[in-house]
Here is the input.
Amino acid sequence: MKSLYKKGLRVIAYTCGFFGLVGLALAIHIGITQQSIATSGPAMQLSRIDFKGPIDSTIAARIKGSILHLESVQHAYFNIPDGIVVYSHNPKVQSAQAVYDKIQEEFHLNAERFIVSADMAAGSCPITGKNSLLAKAGNFLVGVFR
Here is the structure.
């Protein structure tokens, strides 16, 4: 009976030790990842242009093609019924304002850039937003390991 008791304690101790090491590795990983996200900035950004008047499919295709030909723009989607074009670009190479200016210069349409308000940005991403669980855990762990 005593050896069974010692065996059980040993199994519990090894199990706790294993999960403790895994938890520590996870905590270090989250801390390092959160710190690098905060310092590096985004590599890609989504931007949007809202067109105020009706846009037909041929003009929409020309606008989308013009956006896709700009440096650092990788994808573009034009929602014709709503008059909205969304595109991804590298903000370090091409700003959203520069893309908007080039489209306005070429097409002279009634349009405006969609700019996210501070309130919208604060709660926008459930994973990396300022109020997300991951961000809170990462900030805590960064503070612990400093």
In short: The helical segments are 2-40, 57-68, 96-107, 118-122, 133-144. Residues 45-121 form a domain with the Alpha-Beta Plaits fold (CATH 3.30.70.100). Strands lie at 45-51, 73-79, 84-89, 111-113. The radius of gyration is 25 Å.
